[in-house]
Amino acid sequence: MSVTTLATRAAYRRSPFAGAALPRLIAGIIILALWQAIVPRFAPEFVATPSGIASVFTKVVASPAFLSAAGVTLLAVAEGLAIAVVLGTAIGLAMGRSTVVDRALRHYINAFNAMPMIVVLPIFSLWFGYSGSARLATVVFAAIFAMIVSVADGARSMPHEFDEVGRSFRSGRLRMLFDIVLPSATPYFLAGVRLAAGRALIGAVVAEFFTAINGLGYFILFNSRTFHHNEAFVAVIFLAGFGVGFDALVNAATRRFLPWYRRDEK
Amino acid sequence: MREFLARQLPFVISLAIGLAAWEIVGRNSSEAFMAPLSETLVRFWELVQSGELINQSLSSASLFVTGLALAIVVGMPLGLLLARVRILREALDLYIMILYATPMVALIPFILSLMGFGFAPKVLVVFLFAVFSILYNTVEGARSIKPELVEVARSYRSGEWALWRDVIVPYTLPFTMTGVRQAIGRALVGMIAAEFFLSSTGLGQLIMTATQNFDTVAVFAAILVIVAAGLALTRLGLVLENHFTRWRV
């Protein structure tokens, strides 16, 4: 076997997108073609088709309405996610390290985590008004519990030896938390961030549907109600892109910075 | 017994603090903003007795079960098919991954204007929320089937049927069950979203009308039911997942 084939084999193994490019491309073309051919036969003319979306895409993306909507939503998601990550990590670490805190909070966290977050929308819009604050609160609420649960799991799963080594070197509690517990919980932390980001995005869109404040969710709602489905779908593509992009980013970060961590070894 | 009590003590204290805080905050704020625990429970009992809560819960449950069942019936066989037919899997996994990461709520306005009000569009929403978790996890599982397993089975001349029965299905099922567990949570969100934004029925309707009448007590009572349902369903999902992953240890 020559060196080049070995190299290409290695590359194939490394990138999940390399070997299957052709079947994927063909499948994509088939899906779009079916959509283009079948949907207009059954649905009214305003319904989105690939060609319709392509024809309005650049116009929509450059329009100030879309840009401001995307900016507002992404900012709210980033802001809410930041709050949820910081608070969630703090609470999760406390729960993972202290059995008392864990026992005191566990049932609350489980209950809130199991609850579909959008039921709080009516209450939140009552408390915070039909405003950006209601959206921010929804985003934080949607994201924080995933964060708490993941980080607590991570802190709990730290091998006991780490604790003992830290203690025998007389490291302080705080030092231990930041230099031992947090680094060893990083894979869980990243998994939590990934989960939280997806939920935060849903929270923002739902809050915009509910309160009708400016943002991508409202952009979709408004355009689909005024029979501009192609325009509305551009926003859906952006939301999907954000979701996929964030996932890819977290995965890349895990591979790059935590090469020692393998999911299947757990 | 004593040890058990000592273990539960932090929870009992925090529960007492939480409930007391709920009661006190509720009593000291405007009626439209917050309802104290006692009134919520009274209202909960009234709603149960009038039959409204039970009817609406049953209506929500039928939506949830129909959507989730469809997602399992479609997602599982399709996932297993993708597990076996490599070319199909390679062609479709990227799109499944994209749909898995797409916030499905964004499609609700389209579904509304295409299918209008009724039961079917709401089932579609629950289905869409749930199905991609099942598919995505099954495909992830299938991707990790060790080629050695299939090779060993093949070298013992096992046929296609035996291969499915003894290798592919048992190997992939735990992953599928992880997907089902995730799907249960997502379907619950889809159920409420469908009831909020499509035709209003079930617990979603109860919450919406109560909100419009500033009947905050009833909103809290309905949320209580949803939290209980969420907890019970999450537990069910975990039990299911553990049941099918026993052999993996």
Description:
The complex is a heterodimer of chains A (266) and B (249). Chain A has 266 residues and is mainly alpha-helical. Chain A has a single domain, classed as MetI-like fold. Chain A has twelve helices and no strands. Chain A has helices spanning 3-14, 21-42, 50-62, 64-97, 99-114, 121-128, 132-156, 160-168, 173-184, 186-211, 216-225, 229-257. In chain A, α6 crosses α7 (132-156). Residues 1-15 of chain A have low confidence and may be disordered. With 249 residues, chain B is mostly helical. Chain B has one domain: MetI-like fold, CATH 1.10.3720.10. Chain B contains ten helices and no strands. At the A-B interface, α2, α5, α6, α10 and α11 of A face α1, α4, α5, α8 and α9 of B.
Entry summary:
With 266 residues, chain A is mainly α. Chain A has 12 helices and no strands.
List the helices and strands and how they pair.
The complex is a heterodimer of chains A (266) and B (249).
Chain A: H1 3-14, H2 21-42, H3 50-62, H4 64-97, H5 99-114, H6 121-128, H7 132-156, H8 160-168, H9 173-184, H10 186-211, H11 216-225, H12 229-257
Helix pairs in contact in A: 3-12, 4-5, 4-7, 4-10, 4-11, 5-7, 6-7, 7-10, 10-11, 10-12, 11-12
Chain B: H1 2-27, H2 37-50, H3 52-84, H4 86-101, H5 108-115, H6 119-143, H7 147-155, H8 160-197, H9 202-212, H10 216-244
